[in-house]
Design a protein that fits this description.
single chain; Alpha-Beta Plaits; four-stranded antiparallel β-sheet; 9 helices; about 15% strand; binds inosine-5'-diphosphate; binds magnesium ion
Length: about 160
């Protein structure tokens, strides 16, 4: 049973509050998206991630299938851009990684900047490397809970250090 389904079962019962309370707060999950990989920005983006104090505890170059992308972004399935998002995220390899730092989720969202690069702060990864609101170079989990789910989507326990 995969972790997403296991967590759905937890949620249905009353384990969720306890599960959440014990959730670690020092990890987030990221993807350097196909546009960033195509443009040769892997090195520059990893440099910024390291300079901001994140430790890489899992990493790989991989390509999502259509089913993977639909599942990963299931929360957006009713949005008008869903088809475009799935197409984009599956068109080439990505770098998937789990990052460790205190307050990882929030600090990483600050480092990457707003979803729309036009609104992203100066010096953020999206301001520097994203082309548009759709093709925005990098993913960052939006909660500790999603960081755990998304990390487990891409990595087995033995591939995380
Ligand atoms: P986030 O990545 O900053 O958390 P979300 O709202 O969760 O932003 O959206 C997920 C991804 O969907 C975005 O990173 C982007 O690639 C894509 N996306 C979001 N809004 C739009 C849009 O209005 N048009 C096209 N693609 C979008
Ligand atoms: Mg999001």
């Amino acid at each position: 049973m995969n972790v997403n389904r296991l967590y759905a079962v937890f949620k249905k019962r009353r384990f969720a509050p306890k599960f959440k309370k014990n959730m670690r707060t020092d990890r987030t999950f990221t993807m350097l998206k196909p546009d960033a990989v195509e443009k040769g920005h892997i090195g520059a983006i990893l440099e910024k991630i390291n300079a901001a104090g994140f430790k890489i505890v899992a990493m790989k170059l991989t390509q999502m299938t259509t089913d993977d992308a639909k599942e990963f972004y299931a929360i957006h399935k009713e949005r008008p851009f869903f088809g475009e998002l799935v197409e984009y995220m599956t068109r080439g390899p990505i770098v998937a990684a789990i990052l460790e730092k205190d307050n990882a989720v929030e600090d990483f969202r600050t480092l990457i900047g707003a979803t729309n690069p036009a609104e992203a702060a100066e010096g953020t990864i999206r301001k520097l490397y994203a082309a548009s609101i759709g093709e925005n170079a990098v993913h960052g989990s939006d909660s500790d809970e999603n960081a755990a789910i998304e990390g487990a989507f891409h990595f087995a326990g033995r591939d995380t250090f």
